[in-house]
Structure formats: C-alpha cells, structure tokens
TrEMBL record:
Transmembrane segments: none annotated. This is Polymer-forming cytoskeletal protein. Belongs to the bactofilin family. It comes from Elongatibacter sediminis. InterPro entries: BacA/B (IPR007607). Residues 153-169 have a biased composition (Low complexity). Residues 1-11 have a biased composition (Basic residues). Residues 12-22 have a biased composition (Basic and acidic residues). It comes from the Bacteria. It holds the Pfam family Bactofilin. Residues 1-37, 143-179 are annotated as: Disordered.
Length: 179
C-alpha cells in the first residue's frame, strides 16, 4: 500500500509533482515594501522624535517630530494625529497631519483626511471631502524656475506706474482660496 515500487497509481488532480532539482528562491535579506510587514502606532501611543525604519507604518496614535520611510508606505489612520514632516514611498492620510509630505511615488489625502502643509510628489490625490491647506509641488524641477521669475517681476503698483511706457511686464496679483 505504501510501497512506491509496486504498481503505480495515476496521480490525483490535487497532487502536484515536485521537481527537487531547482533550489528554492532565497528569502530577501531586507523586507521590501510589498512584504506586507506593517509597524503600528496604536491609538494609545504618543511618540515625540524621529521615526525611521524598513517596513510600512500605520499611525493611529500621535506623533511629533519626523517620519522618514523613503522606500515604504506611511499611512495615517482616521484616529492618527501627526505634527511632523513625513517622507515615504506612498503616503496615505485619513487622519490629521500638520507638516510637509514628500511622497516618492504618491500622496493620497482621503475624504476623512486633514492636511496643513506642503505636498511634494509626482502623483497627488485629494479625495472628495479632504481638507487641505498648503502647496502642491508635482514637478519640483520645472516649477522652481517660473516661481523665481514671478518673485522678481514688479508689483502691480510699479507695473501700472510704468504701464504708459509699454516696456514693463504686466503682472497680476492672484490668490487661490479654498472653501
């Protein structure tokens, strides 16, 4: 019955042959952002200082300081409150953040999210209901030059005073207000 050498039975559909000639793939020496490892700062935890590491982070508690996880995902949950600059591969905010966000790939501010600070990332998502006050920079190299040119342009008063000459560039004061 258990002897392999006596008559062979056809294999069942759920059995799979194993080829022992191929070695198993070696486990990665450092966890990647896709391994699913997540460090959690629970709702009863308060941290004052710098946070860095090599895994994804979920903040449901309070953090003051800095969070730097450039290759990993940083999530601020609905009960999370952060007063810190945050750097991550992807940053998701469902709670409250006061500080600058730098997403290597993407920053998402959920409908329940509240952000007061600047966002720098190639992709930015503001979901319906999100509260945001700050600046968004989606291409730092391209945006820096025009801003400097505008800062050097004459103000509206000096432009209107010299408007008769036709030589001075015309500028306008623009303000963006969110409700």
């Amino acid at each position: 019955m258990f002897d392999k050498h006596k008559g062979s039975k056809p294999r069942q559909a759920h059995e799979s042959p194993r080829d022992h000639s191929e070695p198993a793939a070696p486990a990665p020496s450092t966890p990647s952002a896709t391994t699913g490892k997540v460090a959690v700062i629970g709702p009863g935890i308060e941290i004052d200082g710098a946070i860095s590491g090599t895994e994804n982070l979920l903040v449901e508690g309070q953090v003051k300081g800095t969070i730097v996880l450039s290759s990993y995902e940083v999530t601020i949950g609905k009960s999370g409150s952060v007063k810190a600059d945050i750097t991550g591969r992807t940053i998701r905010v469902s709670g409250k953040v006061e500080g600058d966000l730098t997403g290597e790939e993407k920053v998402i501010i959920a409908g329940s999210g509240n952000v007061r600070g600047n966002v720098t990332s190639p992709r930015v998502v503001l979901e319906d209901g999100a509260i945001f006050k700050g600046n968004i920079d989606m291409d730092p190299g391209e945006i820096a030059s025009p801003v400097k040119a505008v800062e050097r342009a004459p103000t509206s008063k000096s432009a209107s005073a010299s408007a008769g000459s036709g030589d001075a560039p015309k500028t306008a004061d623009l303000a963006l207000k969110s409700s």
